[in-house]
Amino acid sequence: MHRIPSSDSPLRGGAVRAALAAPALLALLVLAGCGKSGEKPEAAQAKAAPEDPMVVKIRPEMASNFKVGPLQTADIAPMQEISGRIEANERQVSRIGASVTGRVTEVLTELGDRVRAGQVMARIASPELTTAQLAVMRANSSVSLAGRAVERARQLIAADVIGTAEVQRREAELAIARAELQAATDQLRLMGISSEAVNQLRTKGTLASAIGIASNRAGVVIERTVSQGQVAQPGDPMFTVADLSNVWVVGALPEQAAGTVEAGQSVEIRVPALGGEPLAGKIVYVGDTVQADTRTLAIRTQVDNPGGQLKPQMLATMRISGSPKNVPAVPATAVVREADRDHIFVRTAENTFRLVPVELGTASNGMRPLLQGAKPGTEIVQDGAFHLNNERKRAELE
């Protein structure tokens, strides 16, 4: 028979102690878990939440480096900036071509050459020229014959050989012959034959072999569309000559701004190719129709160009100023460009500032009109915004 150990035996005492220790250990584990789960959620969120990257807090000794003041209003003339280009003044442009059909025998002018009024730029040989010159010679002979017939008739009437009616008939024939000669001569001049060549033709019978295509104004050859040996047709332009002593600056105004621009308004023109030196002008034309594909309105101004520095097709920027208006405005030194947007620093607490996105207009006299983003009276950094933004970025990296 097996004997059951008594309660005071060593084996039974160890079992009892183990049984008593297990619940105590379990209670300790439960209390430890409760302590972790009982941590306040607000403190956990505060510890996990990151700082606002748009807010910067500066040390008190740095406050003197920045100028802070309320957002104010200022009288600003609204400025519209549109792209444009230089073009020749169409009122001072001549497109020169042949007056008859013929073959180009000589080209005397190249693109970019300066020409004077009356200068021959090319020569054309044409059968029409020969026909017109022969018509002048025939008309000239008819005038001579009719003139001599009138003289004989006057002698015969003096001798009472013929009647007055015969003299009148011959005088009428002379008048018709003179009119035909004048018409044939005018036709030659329209073809480009000079008066001197016409006189040579009438007095000596010398035929001109070619027509000279002459410029009708002084200027610069900005286009040439003819080559030697080419057949030219009447109405086809061979050369374009422009007087560039003054030029047009042409721009495209968005249709929503059509009511803000009118003829006579001042405009400032900047040409990047010339270093951006501003040129002053006035709007001389505002289009009456809107381009359907671009939804823009054509405008132009006229600018003197005595030195010839402004050349057709140069790019330009037109800044059109309107009537001054009192609007909220910020200094240009208060603006920070970040992520392709304009921003300003607004004071939220002592030595604490927040970078706020805003919408601004074009600068005028160092001020930019505030369209959206802050209200008048708001405390903003008016000077030193660039350096304050550097401080914000440095703190963000840390």
Helical segment count? 6
Number of strands: 23
Mean pLDDT: 82
Separation of termini? 81 Å
User: What sort of overall outline do the alpha carbons produce when their principal axes are compared?
Assistant: rod-shaped
Helix content: 25-40%
Give the CATH architecture of the domain at 55-76 and 325-397. Answer: Beta Barrel
Q: Class of the domain at 55-76 and 325-397, according to the CATH hierarchy?
A: Mainly Beta
Q: Output the radius of gyration.
A: 48 Å
Q: What is CATH's topology name of the domain at 55-76 and 325-397? A: conserved putative lor/sdh protein from methanococcus maripaludis s2 fold
- Based on secondary structure, the structural category is alpha+beta
Strand percentage lies at 35-45%
